[in-house]
Amino acid sequence: MLRLANPARFMRLSAVLLPWFAWLAALFIAAGLVLALFIAPPDYQQGEAVRIMYVHVPSAWMASFVYAVMAGASAVGLVWRHPLADIAARAAAPLGAGFTFVCLVTGSLWGEPMWGTWWVWDARLTSVLVLFFLYLGYIALVNAFDEPTRGTRAGAILAIVGIVNLPIIKFSVDWWNTLHQPASVFRLGGPTIAASMLWPLFAMALGFTLLFAALLLLRMRTALVAARARALRLVANQDDGRAVPRAAQARLDPAR
Amino acid sequence: MSAFRRLVARDLRLALRQGGDAATVVAFFVLTVILFPFGVGPEPELLRRIAPGVVWVTALLASLLSLERLFLADYEDGSLEVLALIPLPLEAQVVAKCLAHWLVTGLPLTLLAPLLALLLHLEGAAYPALVAGMALGTPTLSLIGAIGAALTLGARRGGVLLSLLVLPLYVPILIFGVGACEAAATGFAARPHLLLLAALLALALPLAPFAAAAGLRQALE
Question: A87 in a domain, yes or no?
């Protein structure tokens, strides 16, 4: 992990990995969508509306997973001052917020035909909404400081504090018996979903994970390139002699 | 321990002498609760129904109001850097500051809550649950708020940001606080809700100071 701290090495490695992740994500999501929309059977109770599940459930998993990645990267950044971990945490936040938003919207669209309501103040829905606000709070906090490192440190502490919400989301359906159904895939005694529905679901989940990995690498590469561009622009300004007085310029560049 | 006591005494003295801070919070609490009968109409039945929620939400916002000042004055005049050097760990100082903050905001809110609930015609059986819930919940509000206050030191638009960070984390306290009142009002036991509020306090008391102290350290870097 510490060998990856070298941004140049990360850029080389991620340049190789990025197309693989991106194309595999496209492949799995395309296959998952075909399986989910045309091949998987309609539900005996819910009919065709059950197909929303193939987007809703993977994005819900990703919402929690991305938060765990963000909090983990924040912890690594705080403990080891790992520069790429800081960049990863900042890059992951908008992606996680996006997945959480998709999860909330598809859940709402699914709730209307099935429960007869767009929204209920159920424990699971509320805790996911809180997760969404945690993402927004993190993004706002990280960008609220003039000095980027301060924002990253403050955001890292917030991300670690917010991790208490993840077990609440996971177990909310067991602790409070409300409208949202309890876990049916990752439970003791195996999944209660038919295999014909489980495989498209797993294909979509894998596709979403790969998509997240690809977008995360892309955002991290962009952040590194942007930082490099900023540094180069500073140097260029110094060469013009615009930003730096002549005496300081001589000190900076003894060859001149 | 004496350093801890002196820090609490200092913060209390500052809060009371600068005047207004505690009084503003209490005035905000009273005025906002009084706005509701004008807003939703004076029918006792309706007010009775929404009383626990109104009192709790308003108490939450009132406690949020004074949070920004928790570390800001010390941060701006540099005393926070001196405090960081004294032998008392920063975590203990956070607890001391939260205690002082609770004494000037949470405690008055707790004592005033039944009076305001009376104006809203709260069910008679719910008063003990309301006061007990506020007594258990408001310290947790101060402790969680301290994390947000420490993290937003030196941020642009710190006050607005603080509410965005802290309000989502307040949700569980609101749920169980109102739950205790509603349970008592409808003849169920308020005890489970109060125990959960106590559990939140027992969790926040040792953990929140660590996060807040970490926030203070990175603000002082």
Answer: yes
Q: Report the interhelical angle of A83-115 vs A195-240 (nearest 10°).
A: 140
The count of domains in chain A is 1
Q: Structural domain of residue A153, as residue ranges?
A: 27-185+192-224
From residue B51, alpha-carbon distances to B34, B35, B108 in Å are 11, 12, 18
ipTM for the complex?
Answer: 0.83
Domain count along chain B? 1
B-interface mutation test, from A81, A126, A134, A158, most B Cβ less than 10 A away: A158
Chain B CA closest to residue A141 = B161
- Distance of CA A49 to CAs A107, A114, B194, Å? 11, 8, 41
Inter-chain CB proximity A154 and B218 less than 8 Å: yes
Q: For residue A20, tell me if it sits in a domain.
A: no
A32-70 pLDDT per residue, tens:
999 888 887 777 777 777 888 889 999 999 999 999 999
Taking an 8 Å cut-off on Cβ atoms, the answer to whether B214 and A157 are in contact is yes
* B123-177 residue pLDDT tens: 888 899 999 999 999 999 999 999 999 999 888 877 788 988 999 999 889 989 9
Q: Inter-chain contact A161–B164, Cβ cutoff 8 Å?
A: no
> Distance (Å, rounded) from C-alpha B28 to C-alpha B26?
5
Domain hosting residue B63, numbered range: 2-220
